[in-house]
Amino acid sequence: MPPKTDLALARTPSRPGRLHGAIARDLGIAIVSGQRPPGDVLANEIEFSEQLQVSRSAYREAIRILAAKGLVESRPRTGTRVLPMERWNLLDPDVLAWFFESEPSRSMVDGLFELRLIVEPAAAALAAVRRTTQQLGQMRQALNDMERLTLKTEAGQSADRDFHQTLLIATGNPPLISLASTIGAGVRWTTHYKQRKRKLPPDPMPEHWRVYDAVAAGDADEARAAMEALVNHALAQTSGAMGKK
Q1: 186 and 70, same domain (yes or no)
Q2: By mean pLDDT, which of 5-14, 69-78, 103-112, 173-182 is the weakest?
Q3: Would you put residue 70 in left (φ > 0), alpha (ψ -120 to 50) or beta?
């Protein structure tokens, strides 16, 4: 059976510094979307480089990236195989991005929001009693930017991500802080997905300002409740964008 190729990979940019990242991205999207299912054997570096006219070193580096994220495993004689989902690093921001670049499964979306509901309300309550004046200013600036730029722009989406990441940092809890990039990526890519589906919320700012005001007031209970409402609303919007499955 001849090795599979993707048209997206054939259009990979030729800049050496970015080539391996682009190859990893296209292969990653193919894997998480199910185009390359678990157990699938990827083309070896000679076949791949000849098919798409890229260097073997770029392909090897791309495979190293995917292996580090748990998506593939390379072994002598058997080659590089796609691993089952339970081996994937689903908290990796790149892996989350690849899910939402295609069409994420309902179980993946529900799981991501369950994680957010476990982490973010508790983080908001901690941030309400631990945040510094500087962190409060950073959160306020992020919301001002989000309000001015809107979620229809990449910069506005980045400001939304910054708000959620800063809130986790404000907990002062190192294990929670380590989840900041994952939560931030989840926020940004679900928003990006809703934008693609033309299902952005009409005005997300009141919910965000409610969280901020509670954190600024040092009200842990209100911060927890406000963040829980915000995440649940975001889940409902994302589920609506996915339609019936």
Answers
A1: no
A2: 5-14
A3: left
pTM of the model: 0.84
Among candidate residues 155, 117, 93, 95, the one with its CA nearest the CA of residue 236 = 117
Q: What is the pLDDT of residue 211?
A: 98
Q: How far is CA 243 from the centre of its chain?
A: 20
Q: What is the Cα Rg of the chain in Å?
A: 20
Give the other-Cβ count within 10 Å of 25's Cβ: 21
Q: Which structural domain range is residue 205 located in?
A: 105-242
* CATH code for the domain in which residue 31 is found: 1.10.10.10
Return the SS3 of 75: strand
